[in-house]
């Protein structure tokens, strides 16, 4: 997350929790704690706390919730496609007339 995205999220929070009293120094310090997460995970965490009626923003609670949201975000990413060649080793052995992997290793070590 960029500093601008972080500041934007905290501006949103500052309107809802006016007791935050954010300064440039506190923003810079807090950014170091949150910069490894996505802006989306921080935004979701802030909205969840606000919608649950929290009248005071607790930074440790927000940090933990942001971590949880970010973990969920990573788990929801699409998985990698299956390899196109499932039997690549078998094809390699067959194409090079090797009986098995030991034969291929033996042949390669003799020729190298």
Structural class of the secondary elements?
Answer: mainly alpha
**Radius of gyration computed on alpha carbons:** 26 Å
- Biggest sheet features: none
Q: What's the structural domain tally?
A: 2
Notes on the structure:
- Helix 1 crosses helix 2 (24-34), helix 1 packs parallel to helix 3 (39-51) and helix 3 crosses helix 4.
- This protein is 66% helix and 0% strand.
- The chain is mainly alpha-helical and 112 residues long.
- The protein has two domains: 3-75, no CATH class; 81-112, no CATH class.
- The chain is rod-shaped.
What attributes characterize this protein structure?
mainly alpha; rod-shaped; 112 residues
Helix and strand arrangement:
Blueprint: H1 3-16, H2 24-34, H3 39-51, H4 59-75, H5 88-95, H6 101-111
């Amino acid at each position: 997350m960029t500093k601008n995205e972080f500041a934007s999220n905290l501006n949103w929070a500052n309107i809802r929790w006016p007791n935050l009293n954010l300064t440039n120094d506190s923003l810079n310090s807090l950014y170091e704690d949150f910069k490894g997460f996505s802006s989306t995970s921080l935004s979701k965490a802030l909205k969840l706390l606000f919608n649950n009626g929290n009248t005071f923003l607790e930074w440790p609670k927000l940090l933990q919730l942001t971590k949880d949201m970010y973990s969920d975000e990573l788990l929801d990413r699409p998985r990698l496609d299956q390899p196109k060649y499932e039997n690549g080793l078998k094809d390699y052995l067959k194409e090079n007339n090797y009986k098995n992997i030991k034969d291929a290793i033996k042949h390669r070590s003799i020729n190298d």
